[in-house]
Structures are given as structure tokens and as C-alpha cells.
Design brief:
The chain is an alpha+beta fold. It contains 20 helices and 11 strands.
Amino acid sequence: MAVLPGSYVIPLLGVSIVIAALTYITYKMLSDYLHKWFEMKPIPEVEGTYLFVGAALQFKTNAGDFFRQIEDFSNEYRDAPLFKLWVGTLPFVVLFHAETVETILTNPVHMEKGYSYNFLHPWLGTGLLTSTGLKWRQRRKMLTPTFHFSILTDFLEVMNEQAEILVGKLEKKAGKGPFNCFSDMTLCALDIICETAMGKKIYAQSNSDSEYVKSVYKMSDIISSRQRKPWFWPDFVYYWFGEGREQDKTLKILHSFTYKVIQERAENISCSESDSDSDRGTKKRRAFLDMLLKTTDMDGNKMTHQDIQEEVDTFMFRGHDTTAAAMNWVLHLLGSHPEAHSKVQQELQEVFGTSDRPINTEDLKKLKYLECVIKEALRLFPSVPMFARTLGEDCYINGFKVPKGANAIVLTYTLHRDPRYFPEPEEFRPERFLPENSVGRPPYAYVPFSAGLRNCIGQRFALMEEKVVLAYVLRNFNVEACQKREELRPVGELILRPEKGIWIKLEKRKPQASSN
């Protein structure tokens, strides 16, 4: 029998090891997939689902069509406690009832975000939105004090200033027929988050062509597009055939901007600390970034500039488009419902009279009906129409076993339309959120800011901003909607947007005698 020379044995051994390893990995992946497939068999399933492909072939690539498709699925399975959706070999269970949502959001084992959040990592790293486990717990503990109410009140000055600039812009459009207000509201929110998060004015309202502003919008579109196309989920496919290179170019602009701001702010803080005696008596406007630069963990270690960049990028991403969308939906709804519109303006009249003074914290407490309007708008049009968790262990949801590793999607948009808790759910009724009408409603029937341990850390900031900006607009103008509800066609990308914007007419309000 011929014996192979030693020079051939080692390469052949290496090839054999690689083949054996690949065979083992393939076997493990296949057995894990088939195990999940058979274990989840009893769960109601979207029609047109095939082994290894799932339902991916029937997904619409257009953002609006895709969202309506998910909405149709949830309506089809409305009477079921949940339904499943395979995307390739990845299983998703879709939840839209308070009791099933509560099962997931109250269990700390299921704290890891869903698979689709991986596509945010190139932009946001593993900051508060995307991190998990020990890193998330430490980061949440460190950041919670920066959202204390006393600190948030410092940001009122910025909100008032930017809302005043917005009113100035809208005055030029009042009385001149319909216009799309979506961009106006969004640029105002972007100016507010830039100055409060980074302490940096970017003048988005007066310079919407800025490279940074364009890149924020572009990056959101790139990520949401990839999330809808499972064939672009593998990185090598995305970079060869998708928008991978375009994403890298856009990221370079975003990251270099925030990196430069952090460097400048850090230098200014060290200078101001050494000159603190000479600055005594002058109050410096704080930003989240300033607090992050001084924040330490339990061992007394400061956050690195990389850590800070993750959080600043996260604040920028999540802190402007969500509030902007909410404010736009409010303007449409009030412009479509004259009675609610009048009640808001009556409340504003009682609080401010004919004064055009800035809004303070006491004013915000008194704007109770406006708060109900915002909450009802977030019920009908939640800024985040769906979010996902990866299950950390096998669990039972309403009697159905769902294995560890499956993704649970909470479909907020459908959850908020449960007629058990919101009779005639498509009707706009702010009174639903008056204290006496909220008694007995399950806490997980309404989750516009998520819920449980991973609820939105910035929800008080968002509500404050929305109240301030909307109060400014409604103190100065009467709003009339120029679209019917069915014309809005919500698009569920990273946030819930109307497909063709929000078209309104504005009329300048005439000063009224104060009732005070």
C-alpha cells in the first residue's frame, strides 16, 4: 500500500479538520432550525411559509406596502393570541395583546433586542438602545440621573427658543394655502436634540441642506431598507450587492461630526473647570454630553469617548424623529377634529391669556388636555410602530411554547387598537386618557415608549418637548388638516411616518381677551 509523503499529510489533515468543522456547524444549525420548526408547529402561521425560506418571498420591498402587509397579517390573526412568521431560518412570533406582551416585557431574561437591531450597530455601537446584559445594566444606571426632572427643566430654554423660530417660519406660510409641515416640525426637533444632547447649534431650521442633517435622514432610510430585505442581512452580500459602501460613507459624516463635538466639548469643560472662579455668577447651559463627560461608573471610572459617542449618536437618532413624528400626527388629528382643537386652545388661553411669554414647568403641569391629545395621538400613531426582543429562554405564551432564540415582535400599532381597552379604536378621543377613564386599563395595553425594564429613558424629555412646541404652534395658529385619514398611509420604517407627509393650512390666531 502506498504511503503519502509527510508534506501531503499535514495539508490533508488541515482540510479534513475544516470539512469536519463545517459539517458539524451545518449539522448544529440545521438541527437547531428543525427543532424550532417542529416545536413551533402549533402556533398559527402566515400562509405561504416554506421550509428554509419562510415567508420572505412574499414580503413587499416598498416601506408603505410592507407595513400594510404586517398590519393585514395582524388583522387576519386578531382572534389568535399570537402568530408566527419565519424569515429564512429565523422565527418571529408577533404579539399584539396586552397579556402576551406583558409576558415578554416583564421578564428580565428577554432583555436582548431583536435580530434587526444588529443593523444599527455600525451607527450606534452598543449604546443604551442596542446593548444587552451587564453593559446595558451599568449604562442604564449611569445614564438615569441625566434624565432627572430637575435637569430636564434646564432644557426648557432651548425648547422655547427653537419653538419660537418654528413659529417665525410658519408665519410665512399662514394664510397661503396647504403645505407639508412634516419637515418643519422635524427640523425643529433636530435643532432641539442637537443643542440639548451635544450643546451644539446646527441651525437645521435655517439650513436644512447641511451635510449632517441630510446624513441623519439618509442613514435612517438605509437601515430601514435593509431590515425589510432579508437577502441583504449577510454583510458580504450587503457590501457586494447592497448599500454597504453608501452606508460607510454616510457613517463617516455622522461619526466625524459627533467625534469632533465631543472632543471640543471635553476641551471646553477642562478649560472652564480651571477658570471656574472667573466664571462665577454666570450660568452655563448644560447638555447631556457635558454630564456624560463627567459620569463615572461604580468603580469611579469615567466613560471613554467611544462610550460617549455611542450614547450621543443614540440620543441623536432616537431623540428627534420620534418626537417630530408625534407632533406631526397631533397637528393632523387636531386639524381634523375642531372640537378637540378648540379645547386645546381654550386650555392654552386659560394658562397664558394673551401673553406670548416662554413656557415654564408650572405651565406644563397645567396643560392636562394637551397631554391627553398627545397620548391619544401616540395610541393611534405610535412613533415606534413595532419593536423586538430575542427570547433568552424557552417560554410559554398563552399556552404556546416558544423556544429560546426566537424573536418576539411587539406590534404596538395593533396593540393600541384592542377594542377591549379602546372601544371604537380608530376614533380620536383624547378623553380616553383622563385619569378617571384610564382606571382598570392594563399597563401593557398602551406602550408608546415600550415598557418594563427597557422602557424609553427619554420619555419625559419627549413629552416635555412635544408639549412646548405644540403649545407654541397652537397659541399662534388655527390648524386645518388637508388630508383624510385614509390618505395618510402610515409607513412603518424605523418610525411611523405618513407616506406623503402631513398637509395642513394655518391661519394666524387673533389675540383674545385674557380670561384670567
